Amino acid sequence: MADKVYKDYFFDEPAYDYHDGGYVPLVEPDVPQSKLGVPPMLKPDKEEGNDVYYTITAQAGETQIMPGAKTKTWGYNGTLLGQTVLYKDGQHVHVTLKNELPELTTFHWHGLNVSGPIVDGGCHAPVYPGETKHIDFTVNQHAAMTWLHAHPCPSTAEQVWHGLAGVVYIEDKHEATLNLPRNYGVDDIPVVLQDRRFHENNQWDYQADYDPDGVAGPTAMIDGTVNAYFDVTTQRVRLRFLDGANRREWRLHFSDDLEFVQIAGDGSLLPDAVHMTKLMLTCAERAEVVVDFSNYKAGDVVTLYTDDVPILRFRIHDFAKNDTPLPEHLFDVHAPKVEPGTPVRKIVMSGMDESVAIDGKKFAMQRIDAEQPVGQAQYWDVTNSNDKPGMVHPFHCHGTQFLVLSRNGKAPYPNEHGFKDTVGVNPGETVRILVRFDLPGVYMYHCHIIEHEDGGMMAQIEAYEADKPRPKYKLMDMDTLMHALSEERGIPESELWMGGMESYAKMGMKM
Ligand SMILES: [Cu+2]
To answer: What is the CA radius of gyration of the chain?
Structure first.
């Protein structure tokens, strides 16, 4: 048995999303249970030695989510969400990006250690409708679950709401040596946590649901499935959770207060397994847990809840006994060294609603807000200046996996000792992280409540090679994007609507 079992959510309870005036409570849907829609693995176009080739197509379609009318949705290589992409550490990856949507999009690799601003797929890398682009990169990171989502400014939130989010597994040699479940779809499943509001005829209406502090809906949608169940056929199941919601926090726990073990966070395994009964995720965070169903028998049902709402049911079937011990030590973290005299970077996330900003400024695509030499590790002190009770802002940086060192000078939470790319910062708190960029480029950093990032709580940093001339990066600008969107949507620029644009307009600013 574990020495210590954690039984709380770690974050500040007064800042939980359910205290917010605009909070949309989840309601258990009155629809029949459906089998969890575990996404299929995406097949490579070809593999040649160390090179693998994939095609990712962003497309529009219709998906049967609720009984009755199908819902108009967007997805990658499918009509909703994505097929699971598999990358292996050291592999050279070639990806063809196709946009079959009616408007421009970008393909952002959240959590991948790839160069910005183009390969990374942030707002500077639009792929226009009907267009095909190619990227390639070498995978250089630890085993983890990362993800792919749209990131065009300022309609990231709306496009993710339409369904543009997919799961990306990274494998490496070390993880493969550990006694952990990894039979995809059987005892190793991605669990994408989202929520939606189904309007008339089962359609989504982002504009109608718009809230500058984040859009939410009353219906939980797990891997694109409403009222989902999963058939358990093994004693242990590895669940790879992703908070893929625009705004919602998930406070996960099982029926019978079933204990589980967290083995990984956003960007790596945890150094040591963390035994727990409760797990909170803020937007874009991931957590991998192993659940042991040995105390249950065929016919039993174990329920996963967020707060007090059931979101996923595990139907237990006969399984072979497997009591081989799971590893308690999983991973050695090698923290990069900080040279004496290296300045501490200070980043302040401030405001709520339309007034959100970083360091007092709203995002501007053509402005580089900070710079840092490639290969040099620096401390970043990331502050959430919201008054208490306030809200938790999940801070995310592109193109790197960082370490969380402290929260207001105290130890980080027990389950954030591995590499991460997103960290929830409580109101009035300063989280110190250790950041190093391995590749030169321009990288965005922002709150991952997606309406906050669209609303301007975002900035960008250039990582440069100290001994080389600086490359000139081609950065996107709002006039070009607005012009393109106006043509694609067939409406004048003055009548374009996007959530993020509302935030700028209400502050009397142009994007
Ligand atoms: Cu935020």
So the answer is: 22
Instruction: Assign 3-class secondary structure to 163-183.
Output: CCEEEEEEECHHHHCCCCCCC
Q: What is the pLDDT of residue 476?
A: 94
CA of 394 to the centre of ligand 1 (A): 6
* Ligand 1 centroid – CA 216 distance (Å): 14
Q: How far is the CA of 43 from the centre of ligand 1 (A)?
A: 36
**Which of 2-6, 267-271, 310-314 has the weakest average pLDDT?**
2-6
pTM (predicted TM-score): 0.97
Residues 161, 163, 167: CA angle, nearest 5 degrees? 120
Residue 444's domain is classified under what CATH number?
2.60.40.420
CB-CB contact of 87 with 171 (8 Å):
yes
Mean pLDDT value of segment 228-240: 98
Cα(55) to ligand 1 centroid in Å equals: 33
Residue ranges making up the domain that contains 67:
38-226+342-511
Q: Give percent of the chain above pLDDT 70.
A: 100
Residue-wise pLDDT for 35-82, tens only, equals: 999 999 999 999 999 999 999 999 999 999 999 999 999 999 999 999
Does 80 map to a domain?
A: yes
Contacts of residue 194, Cβ cutoff 8 Å, sequence gap at least 6? 165, 220, 221, 222, 224, 244, 245, 248
Flag whether 1 is in a domain.
no
Is the pLDDT at 113 greater than 80, yes or no? yes
Give the Å distance between the CA of 473 and the centre of ligand 1: 28
Residue 453 within any structural domain of the chain: yes
pLDDT band, very low/low/confident/very high, at 388 (cuts 50, 70, 90): confident
* Cβ–Cβ under 8 Å, residues 105 and 159: yes
pLDDT at 219 over 70: yes
User: Encoding tokens for residue 190?
Assistant: 């991605």
Task: Find the 246 Cα to ligand 1 centroid distance in Å.
Answer: 10
Number of separate domains in the chain: 1
CA of 387 to the centre of ligand 1 (A): 13
* Inside any domain, residue 165: yes
